[in-house]
Design brief:
- The chain is of the alpha/beta class.
- The chain has 9 helices and 8 strands.
- Strand 5, helix 3 and strand 6 form a beta-alpha-beta unit.
- It is globular, with a radius of gyration of 21 Å.
- It starts with 9 loop residues before the first helix and ends with a helix.
């Protein structure tokens, strides 16, 4: 059995970074991420749910949403499976947070506060071949940043391949620890980062209370089921793609096979498993927000189960 929780499981991520005891850890992580640019001294957690702005719009639920003392907003999310429009969806939600700062009256002069989206991707997005992709509003000809109001930072964990001895700075320590946490028996870098002693205590499975353990175990099951479904879809899609590729061309066949396998395996299996799990959690009396967090299903879907 693992010693530490998996931080890429939604509930595990919130146990580490979304609690009162974990706030100092989130501040440290963000400061390492923005080293030399912005210093955060305190954070206040906000409601992770952003209601729909109209009847036919979407409700957004984030992993973590917070604001620092300077009024800067931060959305911090973990994403475990590739989605066709994940970059676009994240930009849409950041823009929603910009628009939510609107105030009625002629005296308001568009005094907007920056909104940062930090997204830990537990997969290769296909849009980059590096760990960190940092998107800002910039002048196309000079590359100079034109505004700091919106910023998207994507951290693709599969590209982080440093060994423990190769980690040289705070962000390296964080990325190595988060990526390998579930396999470790003790956390490294406690000599370089005293805060990692607190991280070690928060992340130990034996230190979870009964409610946290139940929620974490349920989310872990969903995480593993989804990963198995995803791996199967890729493997099956690749196999079907090969068969088709010999007839119509390897490259075209593999692409179509992967798409067919993903649609067949991921959509059907994942949706059914999530609905079944949500129904069980609902029957156990778990609150709506936690069920939404664990399954990713919206409130209307859960209410209909």
């Amino acid at each position: 059995m693992a010693t530490f929780i998996n931080p890429f499981v939604d509930r595990g991520f919130k146990i580490i970074f979304g609690s009162k005891d974990g706030k100092v850890l989130l501040i440290d992580l963000l400061n390492d991420l923005f080293e030399g640019e912005h210093v955060i001294t305190d954070l206040s957690y906000m409601n992770v749910e952003m209601p729909a702005c109209c009847t036919d719009s979407r409700t957004a639920v984030f992993d973590l949403k917070c604001k620092d003392k300077d009024g800067h907003f931060f959305i911090v999310e973990v994403q475990n499976a590739a989605q066709s429009y994940f970059y676009e969806r994240s930009l849409y939600y950041l823009c929603r947070m910009i628009c939510d700062q609107d105030k009625p009256g002629e005296e308001w002069k568009f005094s907007l506060c920056p909104v940062y989206g930090i997204f830990f991707l537990n997969f290769k997005s296909g849009r980059a071949d590096k760990v960190r992709t940092d998107i800002v509003l910039a002048d196309r000809s000079t590359g100079r940043q034109a505004s700091n109001l919106i910023r998207q930072i994507y951290l693709e964990m599969p590209f982080f391949d440093k060994e423990e001895a190769e980690c040289k700075n705070g962000l390296d320590y964080w990325l190595y620890t988060l990526k390998n946490m579930e396999k470790l028996e003790t956390l490294p870098f406690k000599g370089q980062k005293a805060l990692f002693r607190r991280l070690e205590e928060l992340a130990k499975i034996v230190n979870l209370n009964k409610k946290e353990r139940m929620e974490y175990d349920e989310c872990l099951k969903i995480y593993r089921d989804n990963k198995n479904t995803w791996d199967y879809a890729i493997e099956n899609g690749f196999r079907e793609g090969q068969e088709k590729g010999y007839k119509e061309g390897i490259e075209k066949g593999i692409k179509e096979g992967i798409e067919k396998g993903m649609k067949k395996g991921v959509e059907k299996g994942r949706n059914a498993a999530l609905r079944e799990t949500a129904a069980k959690l609902k029957a156990q009396g778990m609150d709506m927000t936690t069920i939404m967090t664990c399954t990713g299903l919206d409130a209307d879907t859960i209410a209909a189960l």
